[in-house]
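Dear H.,

Thanks for agreeing to be a second pair of eyes. The structure we're designing against is below in token form, covering all 839 positions.
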């Protein structure tokens, strides 16, 4: 017996030894403003599209509140109906020629958000072969001729409880049309259900033994209703899964559902037939308790039809419509049974035609409801399939797109949409217009949107990768681990380029807000849950330029059953809402594994070329994990492998940083680090050398050579007086140099304060309850350093001294005079207040 596949996904940083637990969203609450687009179809009394309306002709409400349109488009196919019909007769049931298709191609393709992805869903479980095969030629014509060449279509078939993609999405829609010939050979299971239904009706049609047979027939009908309800619910589940796979697709999405219909209340017509049979007032059957030939009996069948509501599926169909709206999928359907006929009378059954019409209504009601709620069309009760497909094609190519901005603090809720024409628009057309649109949408949270994208990548092969994310398996011992459960733990490395990410300044450098999602599908189409994890991307100060050329490594452990699987990884830059999705195939169990083995570190098992670029990437990865010895080793290896000046400069800089940042650095480390930084400065132009110059200045000051360090910092200001690194150089100068001459110039104010320390409340002042202001006169020299602090107003208990000491540590951008830095003075007041949040 084959063991079913199991899925579990664990995340870990390259340096961690255990799996990290999925975490909730880590960033603060935001209010997202997004545009909600609603496709609207307006038709006249004949069902033809109404063109020429403007934004002012529509009124839109969300949850009952009017909203203002932010964008408005009208789309038309540009091809008149006569020409389309002429081409349709030419192309019926064959592959079209390129020269014929040229006339259908618009001058420019539509933008991605307006391109159509159409899933043709043939439900063989709910189709009789005769009805289906009568409909298929019209479907082929529709696919070959009536879609735009920029539209995509796919063919999905549901049969015997199994959903299969016969043809994936393609713009060559004639291929989808050709694939329907294979569908025509499938028997399907609807005939079996129809046969059971007719058997029950024939049992009801008998004349004798009314009393005993009543209970037996009712049990037959109840069993039949329960069976049909379960099968219809399974059909709904598969349509729901199809909708979910389309959720992450770009642009417009629609399903064209082909069936004989789905019963809203299974066996409702049979329960009605019981009423008619056992309350026979017309004497159609002999032996009926109310018939002229019967003995009186105590059978009360007057309300038998109400029992059908125990099997009612209206809630499930409403859930299906809501799911379609939540994922932007419009639901079109064609009932292949055609026009209603009274088939039972021709089979010598004595029931009235109302039973057959009740059955037809029951099968059509879900299709009509789904179309009505999602803005689609339901083609039912007609044998004019050509006209029905014309109507659907018209909807696909002719519509209005209305957009409005929606602001929701909390995402994930459903919102009701109402669209109406203004009174003026209705007056112009004398009120003879019909309007259709989806009736709701869900403002999905980010995690749900990313789950849609990973599922679309796994199921449909749809994956956009603007961030250039890469994924590869880790090779070597320990890359696969056989667990006690029999599952395989496979390790992969996700490489996220830092260059495209948005880096925001934080205390220790710059940080990107990145999250990662993983989902797995096995060879039988079973999909795992999506797992989310934040990716901590932190670039230390002074390393941004080098880091932008590197990738951030992130290791992923995927636990699956043995065998082939596909993994989808979604990455999102939360600051810009940019998303990437990549997929990778693994065959779990093919790599050497040992039970209970601990996976080796990714950096040890990853098979990479022995190049300077590889070792520089390794050095950057070690730096982010504060593995300074390994970082120095990687930098030295890079120096051995290249003569390229630029690469050597990066390697020398990495070596200098690794040696200087060591908490237990030796004198030899300081000597090597200084040499490394000086080599970098020597080969770089002035502007590019600012960062290594600052590292060198810090090294010199920290090693006791303050004058040399201050001189190096001043060289930075000579190159570039403004920016984060020059500001840090200015602070280094002010805190490291000797005393300077007093400045006296009351007519000039300094620039912005770029460094300050807190003014501390002394314990004595707190106990005495002292509050008030310390007035200070501050003199700042041309380098922005505080050279003198004069006390203008005092407070007791050490508060004056606290204010003076804090101000002496402050650093300013200097005042400017004729484009040159100049000395300045200014007065300030330091306020001390008890019980304040920030004294």
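And this is the sequence the design step returned. I haven't edited it by hand at all.
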């Amino acid at each position: 017996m084959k063991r079913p596949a199991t899925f579990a996904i664990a995340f870990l940083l390259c340096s961690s030894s255990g799996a990290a637990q999925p975490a909730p969203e880590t960033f603060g609450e935001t209010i997202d403003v997004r545009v909600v687009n609603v496709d609207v179809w307006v038709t006249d009394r004949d069902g033809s599209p109404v063109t020429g309306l403007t934004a002012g002709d529509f009124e839109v409400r969300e949850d009952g509140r009017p909203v203002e349109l932010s964008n408005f488009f009208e789309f038309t196919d540009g091809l008149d109906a006569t020409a389309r019909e002429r081409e349709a007769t030419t192309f019926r049931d064959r592959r079209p020629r390129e020269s014929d298709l040229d006339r259908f191609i618009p001058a420019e393709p539509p933008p991605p958000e307006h391109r159509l992805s159409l899933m043709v869903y043939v439900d063989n479980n709910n189709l009789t072969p005769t009805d289906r095969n009568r409909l298929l030629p019209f479907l082929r014509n529709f696919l070959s001729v009536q879609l735009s060449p920029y539209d995509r279509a796919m063919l999905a078939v549901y049969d015997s409880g199994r959903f299969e993609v016969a043809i994936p999405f393609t713009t060559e829609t004639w291929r989808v049309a050709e694939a329907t010939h294979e569908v025509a050979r499938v028997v399907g299971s609807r005939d079996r259900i129809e046969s059971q239904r007719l058997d029950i009706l024939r049992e009801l049609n008998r004349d004798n033994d009314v009393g005993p047979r009543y209970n037996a027939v009712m049990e037959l009908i109840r069993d039949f209703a329960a069976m049909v309800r379960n099968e219809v619910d399974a059909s709904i589940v598969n349509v729901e899964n199809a909708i979910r796979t389309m959720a992450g697709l770009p642009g417009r999405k629609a399903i064209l559902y082909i069936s004989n219909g789905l019963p809203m209340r299974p066996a409702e017509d049979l329960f009605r037939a019981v009423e008619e049979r056992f309350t026979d007032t017309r004497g159609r059957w002999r032996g009926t308790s109310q018939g002229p030939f019967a003995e009186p009996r105590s059978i009360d069948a007057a309300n038998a039809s109400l029992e059908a509501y125990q099997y009612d599926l209206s809630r499930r169909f409403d859930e299906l419509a809501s799911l379609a709206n939540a994922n932007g999928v419009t639901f079109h359907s064609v009932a292949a049974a055609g026009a209603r006929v009274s088939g039972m009378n021709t089979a010598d059954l004595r029931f009235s035609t109302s039973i057959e019409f009740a059955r037809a209504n029951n099968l059509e009601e879900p299709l009509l409801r789904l179309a009505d709620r999602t803005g689609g069309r339901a083609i039912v009760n007609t044998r004019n399939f050509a006209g029905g497909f014309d109507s659907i094609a018209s909807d696909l190519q002719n519509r209005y797109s209305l957009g409005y901005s929606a602001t929701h603090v909390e995402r994930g809720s459903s919102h009701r949409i109402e669209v109406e024409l203004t009174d003026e628009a209705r007056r112009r057309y004398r009120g003879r217009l019909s309007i259709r649109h989806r009736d709701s949408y869900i403002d999905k949270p980010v995690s749900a949107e990313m789950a849609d994208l990973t599922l679309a990548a796994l199921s449909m092969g749809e994956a956009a990768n603007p961030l250039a994310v890469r994924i590869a398996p880790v090779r070597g011992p320990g890359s696969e681990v056989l667990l006690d459960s029999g599952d395989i733990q496979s390790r992969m490395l996700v490489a996220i380029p830092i260059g495209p990410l948005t880096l925001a300044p934080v205390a220790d450098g710059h940080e990107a807000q990145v999250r990662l999602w993983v989902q797995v599908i096995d060879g039988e189409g079973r999909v795992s849950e999506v797992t989310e994890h934040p990716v901590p991307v932190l670039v230390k100060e002074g390393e941004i330029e080098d880091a932008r050329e590197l990738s951030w490594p992130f290791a992923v452990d995927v636990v699956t059953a043995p065998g082939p699987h596909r993994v989808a990884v979604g990455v999102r830059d939360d600051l810009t809402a940019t998303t990437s999705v990549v997929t990778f195939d693994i065959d779990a169990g093919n790599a050497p594994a040992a039970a209970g083995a601990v996976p080796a570190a990714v950096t040890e098992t990853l098979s990479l070329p022995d190049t300077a670029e590889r070792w520089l990437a390794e050095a950057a990865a070690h730096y982010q994990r504060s593995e300074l010895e390994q970082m120095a080793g990687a930098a030295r290896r890079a120096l051995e492998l290249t003569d390229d000046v630029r690469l050597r400069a990066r390697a020398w800089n990495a070596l200098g940083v690794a040696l200087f940042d060591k908490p237990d650095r030796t004198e030899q480390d300081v000597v090597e680090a200084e040499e490394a930084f000086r080599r970098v400065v020597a080969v770089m132009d002035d502007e590019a050398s600012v960062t290594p110059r600052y590292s060198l200045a810090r090294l010199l000051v920290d090693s006791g050579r303050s004058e040399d360090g201050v001189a190096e910092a001043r060289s930075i200001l000579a190159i570039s007086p403004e920016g984060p690194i020059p500001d840090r150089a200015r602070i280094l100068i002010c805190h490291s140099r000797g005393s300077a001459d007093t400045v006296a110039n009351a007519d000039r104010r300094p620039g912005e304060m770029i460094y300050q320390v807190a003014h501390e409340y002394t314990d004595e002042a707190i106990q005495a309850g002292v509050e008030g202001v310390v007035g200070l006169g501050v003199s700042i020299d041309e380098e922005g350093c505080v050279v003198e602090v004069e006390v203008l107003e005092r407070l007791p208990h050490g508060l004056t001294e606290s204010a003076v000491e804090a101000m002496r540590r402050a650093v300013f951008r200097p005042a400017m005079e004729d484009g040159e830095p100049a000395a300045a003075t200014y007065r300030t007041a330091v306020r001390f207040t008890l019980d304040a949040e920030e004294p």
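Two observations from my side: Residues 210-246 form the longest helix (37 residues). Residues 232 and 514 are 42 Å apart (CA to CA).

Warmly,
E.
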